[in-house]
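Duplicate of earlier report; CW-type domain-containing protein input re-posted below.
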Amino acid sequence: MEFDVECSKCFKWLYIPTEERYEKIREHLLECPLYCEDAREWRPSISCNDIPDITRKEKKYGHLISLVFLSLIQDGNEL
Ligand SMILES: [Zn+2]
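Output:
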């Protein structure tokens, strides 16, 4: 299973190495947005200026969460 969180600045999908970390990020995403710089712990070269790696994501959706999705859910909208 793969875990990804969307960067709150450039909207690139960021790979999250463990489920524990993913759950923690998801829990606090609205208060603490995730940025590419936060993923440098396991992907040292990543930045918001990188070109998004979209092709990988189009094929397979595992666990994905984004600030946009969360905001919609909070507002009570159906996705
Ligand atoms: Zn970014």
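Residues 3-74 form one domain.

Merging into the original ticket.
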